[in-house]
Design brief:
Blueprint: H1 6-10, H2 14-34, H3 37-63, H4 67-93, H5 118-129, H6 162-171, H7 173-189, H8 193-221, H9 226-252, H10 270-280, H11 288-293, H12 300-305, H13 314-327, H14 337-350, H15 372-385
Helix pairs in contact: 2-10, 2-13, 3-4, 4-9, 5-7, 7-8, 8-9, 9-14
Domain Fatty acid desaturase: 75-334
Protein name: Fatty acid desaturase
GO biological process, one term: lipid biosynthetic process
Length: 386
């Protein structure tokens, strides 16, 4: 099933893992020492671009007399929302720009333009996901509680519906993230029922505020054109949700993004944590425009190794990370965006079925693996060599 012994899976000694950790720490140190005005200018320029694009797109939607103009405005608004969601909200929420000590561009003050409450998300994502990445039963992002992504989760009849669940989750991804965040808050705050009630109220207010902004306020400002504005805003939110879903799923669920059992957390060292991030994440190839549109999450391996380093540096360090992987014989899982997504879809549809209908073993399946797959190969290799 999932990996329980990372060192055995990676064929590395304790000394190798410690050395791996030191080399990755050196990459982090190099970036941290070089942070400066160019990085600060980048994030401020991105904020100006995003806000300008949103204003222009909303004006275009409200005043354009032609269908083509409204379509262009809707597409531009979807891009503005995607940039705000991933390159700004996600990355600022990770604390990537806290070193600037700018009260506006800080993880504790930035509230993003989506239904999720940033403080809820920071706990569920920064802690439960990034610290305990892909650990079955611990990391809530592993299927988001509605999709079976590993055979370690026992099959149930409801999983037959997961192709439909997957489509629904993609369409309402921001709501899924919001509910995911409050689920994590519930686990953290129990039995503090009073505090939990406050957090649920905060979520209700945030969802209401987002709905009023996009589906009441801006349509009302359009006067007689309110229906067209309402449809355009709904379409932009849908496009943003679909894009965020694709980016996130391609970074976590294609073949090569492994899963782990809670055993790996016992006395986990810094090097072992780094190793788990490498084994549990996947990249997709992207040029500068696609990388920017994805919040630089096409570099998901680098992001999981260094979640609080500025995203504009991931391209710079990707080559060094890959060299470290090659040096220690570790996979650097990457591929085109369509390939990574099709592999993810295959796993979603495949694991909708009971295990008895699946081929390969649970320790050597393409969508997941464990250290045990090497044990089954060793006797065959010894016999062939003998």
């Amino acid at each position: 099933m999932a990996i329980a012994d990372i060192a055995a899976y990676a064929h590395l000694s304790d000394e190798d893992i410690a050395a791996l950790g030191r080399e990755l720490d050196a990459i982090r140190d190099d970036v941290e020492r070089s942070l400066g005005e160019r990085d600060a200018a980048y994030i401020r320029r991105t904020i100006r671009f995003q806000r300008t694009l949103e204003v222009v797109s909303r004006v275009l939607i409200m005043v354009s007399p032609s269908r083509a103009g409204r379509v262009a405005g809707t597409a531009a608004l979807a891009v503005a929302k995607s940039v705000e969601n991933m390159e700004l909200g996600h990355n600022i929420g990770h604390g990537q720009w806290d070193w600037m000590n700018d009260p506006e561009i800080h993880s504790t003050t930035w509230e993003w333009d989506m239904m999720a409450v940033s403080s809820h998300w920071r706990y569920s994502h920064n802690y439960r996901h990034h610290v305990m990445t892909n650990i079955v039963g611990v990391d809530d992002d592993l299927g988001f509680g509605v999709i079976r992504m590993t055979r370690d989760e026992p099959w149930q009849r409801v999983h037959l519906l997961q192709p439909l669940r997957n489509m629904l989750l993609a369409a309402v991804f921001e709501l899924g993230i919001a509910l995911h965040g409050i689920h994590s808050e519930r686990d953290r705050l129990v039995p503090d029922t009073e505090k939990l009630a406050e957090e649920r109220t905060a979520l209700s207010r945030k969802i209401t505020r987002q709905a009023v902004k996009d589906y009441v306020l801006y349509p009302a400002l359009s006067l007689r054109r309110w229906r067209k504005t309402l449809i355009a805003n709904a379409a932009a939110n849908l496009l943003r949700n679909l894009w965020a879903y694709v980016v996130i799923f391609c970074g976590h669920f294609p073949d090569g993004a492994e899963k782990f059992t809670p055993d790996v957390l016992a006395a986990e060292t810094r090097g072992e944590w780094y190793l788990r991030q490498i084994l549990g994440s996947a990249n997709f190839r992207a040029g500068r425009v696609l990388a920017f549109a994805s919040g630089n999450l096409c570099y998901q391996i680098e992001h999981h190794l260094f979640p609080d380093l500025p995203s504009n540096r991931y391209r710079q360090i990707a080559g060094r990370v890959r060299e470290v992987c090659d040096k220690y014989g570790l996979p650097y899982t990457t591929g085109s965006l369509p390939r990574q997504y099709l592999l993810t879809l295959r796993t979603i549809h495949k694991l909708a079925l009971p295990d008895r209908f699946l081929t390969a073993t649970s320790d050597d399946a393409p969508e997941t693996a464990s250290e045990k797959k090497f044990r089954t190969r060793e006797p065959a290799l010894q016999a062939a060599q003998g």
